[in-house]
Amino acid sequence: LSANGNDNKKFKSDDKMDGAPSRVLHIRKLPGEVTETEVIALGLPFGKVTNILMLKGKNQAFLELATEEAAITMVNYYSAVTPHLRNQPIYIQYSNHKELKTDNTLNQRAQAVLQAVTAVQATNAPISGTTVSESAVTPAQSPVLRIIIDNMYYPVTLDVLHQIFSKFGAVLKIITFTKNNQFQALLQYGDPVNAQQAKLALDGQNIYNACCTLRIDFSKLVNLNVKYNNDKSRDYTRPDLPSGDGQPALDPAIAAAFAKETSLLAVPGALSPLAIPNAAAAAAAAAAGRVGMPGVSAGGNTVLLVSNLNEEMVTPQSLFTLFGVYGDVQRVKILYNKKDSALIQMADGNQSQLGKTHL
């Protein structure tokens, strides 16, 4: 596959990158946990997506676009720029199938996702020609996203946002601030296509279980001017910037421009962070463990022994919720002969260490 990676593995149904163009595309080497939404997002910038078939056991998918022209544009673009999902390179080629026939009763989840993105597609003008350029992106598709965190029971840090949004492309700059008693952020990608993919996949998602909901819209700004690298703002292309301790992180010009923006996402009365000692440090550390911060060890014992519990009140659900702040709880067992004690199994040793340290 000379145009899209050095993979010589043959497939019975699709084995030629340079085969006849088709509006059905064969996508392979998908991460095991990838969703239909993420695969559909690959095709959205190029036109209407009309069908999808996920082959999760084979880490493959078939994506059908409305026109052959849109499929050609997509293949040409991703031949020059290797697409990534969840930081893993994937490979796209023409399928031998001219249309995708699926049994809707067996493919209900994919069809539901397709219906959900129809409204999004209606506002996105298809990109014509053989290359994707900035001039072809509609005005609504800025490389800068405006992010609002609803139901913010736990603090969300700049580093957590960087880890989450980096899954969809290179994050260049982030500015965080509080406006109307809500935690908000401006995040700039190098490419508007990455911003669109992140918005489609993450808008409405929760960072933690049932809280810290992401509300994402395109900003009217096309470039962020970051003056300081600190816990409020960062320019990842300029590591030499000063920390600017005690200085406002938001550039006055950006603040003025941002004040003019209006959005339906600004819901008044959002919950403020819990007023408990070290809540910010605990939640930040928990989030770092949840999204897999580089350099953080995930080894060690995954099971915690918790004692001195109130036997009248404790339940597996309450322990699941409590320890869920610090990672993904796998199992909870209240000891049968000693009901003031319980065993909690976390997904990895890093998460169990976080729970032990903070609780």
Your description of this structure?
Strand 10 and strand 11 form a beta hairpin. It contains nine helices and 15 strands. Helix 1 runs antiparallel to helix 5, helix 4 runs parallel beside helix 7 and helix 7 runs antiparallel to helix 9. Among the domains are: 71 residues, RRM (RNA recognition motif) domain (Alpha-Beta Plaits, 2-Layer Sandwich); 92 residues, RRM (RNA recognition motif) domain (Alpha-Beta Plaits), CATH 3.30.70.330; 56 residues, Alpha-Beta Plaits (2-Layer Sandwich). The protein has 359 residues and is α+β, with helices and mostly antiparallel strands. The longest helix is centred in the first third of the chain and has 15 residues. The strands form four sheets. The chain has a six-stranded antiparallel sheet.
List keywords for this structure.
359 residues; alpha+beta; Alpha-Beta Plaits; 6-stranded antiparallel beta sheet; 4-stranded antiparallel beta sheet; phosphoprotein; PTBP2 protein
SSE layout and pairings?
Blueprint: E1 24-28, H1 36-43, E2 49-55, E3 60-65, H2 68-80, E4 84-85, E5 88-89, E6 91-94, H3 108-122, E7 144-150, H4 158-165, E8 171-179, E9 182-189, H5 192-202, E10 206-208, E11 211-218, E12 233-235, H6 252-259, H7 279-291, E13 303-306, H8 316-323, E14 329-334, E15 342-346, H9 349-358
Antiparallel strand pairs: 1-3, 1-6, 2-3, 4-5, 7-9, 7-11, 8-9, 8-12, 10-11, 13-15, 14-15
Helix pairs in contact: 1-5, 4-7, 7-9
Domain RRM: 23-97, 145-221, 302-359
Keywords: Phosphoprotein, Repeat, RNA-binding
GO molecular function, one term: RNA binding
